[in-house]
Amino acid sequence: MARVIPLGKLADLAGAPQLAVPLPLSDPLDWQGLKAALPAMLAEAIDDPRVRVAINGALLPNKLMMQAGAGDEIALLPPVSGG
Q1: 76 pLDDT higher than 60
Q2: Is the predicted pLDDT of residue 79 greater than 70, yes or no?
Q3: pLDDT of residue 80
Q4: 28 has pLDDT over 70
Q5: Under DSSP, is residue 17 helix (H, G, I), strand (E, B) or coil?
Q6: Residue 82 falls within a domain, yes or no?
Q7: In a designed cystine with 63, which of 11, 23, 50, 53 is the match (CB 3.0 to 4.6 A)?
Q8: Which Pfam families does this UniProt record tie to the protein (predicted)?
């Protein structure tokens, strides 16, 4: 299992402060696998190119190249807002 931590408005879409996501049997969890394991509204929201992803605290330069393993923490960071 990997632990998904949606932050900000993404947590509202997830309906929980964290989610447990099962890993594929043979491969690490990739971006498409993550989206398939998430609630539909959250999966749609994280397709926004401004949403960033961190694994175990390390920000990924390209979320499409994500590879997560057992026990990893996947943080979903919404776009920064402010004024």
Answers
A1: yes
A2: yes
A3: 79
A4: yes
A5: coil
A6: no
A7: 53
A8: ThiS
Rounded Cα distance, 22 and 52, in Å: 21
Q: How many Å apart are CA 62 and CA 71, to the nearest integer?
A: 21
CA separation, residue 76 to residues 8, 25, 48, 56 (Å)? 9, 23, 11, 11
In a domain? residue 28: yes
Q: Which residue has the higher pLDDT, 59 or 83?
A: 59
Residue with tokens 């992803």: 53
CA distance 64 to 67: 9
Task: Say if 83 falls within a structural domain.
Answer: no
In the chain, how many domains are there?
1
Tokens describing residue 52? 């960033």
